Amino acid sequence: MSEVRPQLLITVVHGTWPRGLFPKIARFKQWARGLMRRKRLGPPLFWFEEGSPFLDRLSTELADIPHKIRSVPWSGANSIFVRDKTAHILAEDLSAEHAEYPQATQLIIAHSHGGNIALRALYLLRKRDASGLCGAEMPTPLVVTLATPFFEVQHADLGDRPSVIRFLVLYAMAFLVLTALLFISGVPLLDEFGTYALKVTVKLLTHARLPTLDESGAAVVIAGLLALPFALSGFLWWDSGRAPARQRHIDDLNDATRLGEIVSAQAQRLLIIRAIEDEASLTLAQGTILVYAAAATIAGIGAVLAFIFFRLLGLLSFAFSKFSLAPVLGWKVVALAADTIAALTLSLFGILALARAVHGRELSWSPMECQISTHSTPDAIGLSKIVTLVRRIHLKSLRHGIYEHEDCVKVISDWVRSQLCAMPVRQETG
Length: 430
What we know:
The protein is α/β, with parallel strands linked by helices and 430 residues long. The chain has helices at 23-36, 53-61, 80-100, 113-131, 161-185, 192-206, 215-241, 243-257, 264-267, 279-312, 326-329, 331-357, 408-420; strands at residues 8-13, 67-71, 105-111, 142-146, 150-155, 270-275, 370-375, 385-389.
């Protein structure tokens, strides 16, 4: 008896961290579940695993259509380059599958960033087809995305802000390190010669009068003076010397996330399913807001930081000497304020890096001259269908787990049938 060839080839692609933040614990649970499977014990299967409730319901809905389901194994790391590598693998798999079953329809069901992998794979197939390097017909699968934040990295012209932020971060870092070293070393800062030399230096620079120094004041002034050449040399290397490397990194990120505009023929084969108040979308939006707020705050702090450091170092004109805060507040307060501002600058830069990392860990150290584009739908002409599922019953699961929604499988099944021009299965009534 000949084997029934599948009419529908379903490929499932999970998203980021499908097994949670601690995959080793998840692997242990899988191992324990394998031992207890005969007794029907252990934690439930993940949605993309064979025998899961989602795949079982999908098989039931499509029972009258010969089909085969497989899952694309990948690490689920929050990495742009890992997702791009997986997209290349998926593109190769789709081509091989299409060559083996040319008459079958391919269907990709992708969740979260798995949707970016799927669309990236389609882009790679379009690019390969346009280049004419492969004589075989390219596959044109149906694609269903579940709660996918469609994501691309683009070059951005932010003016002088990135350079200002880089200099301030380097200066704050050098200032804090040198201040700490001055106190830890135990070297007397206020000996007669040192105080005299410091006052003569400031006098020669600005003709300004330096208020009476104490230990904290000397540390602020000396650390500020010494930090300046360190910051300038680091800034020149970072801003100018590393400019070509930064541009290459931005180009790599742009290429690894490029989805391209989906033309009408492919847009008609794309179903987008999304949720309201999706936790992943809210996290990405919060990350975007934090990136903007942290960058703007660091740039704003620059003016205050420059005034405090340069004024107290005597590097402003004599006309501003009467506005010195040192005689009023005392050097200890001024030193504390300077340390606080420097520490705040570094903290905000850390927040900036972490906020960018929610879109992909490579963005935490990527150049600031790039912007992150995230949307609930991709750029396309004539999308087939966009469905927003509303949860009407209370469940403890996250909304991002949209595959658990009671209508999700039915929406997918009905849309696939419409694409295959198949009639819905009629249930017999008693």
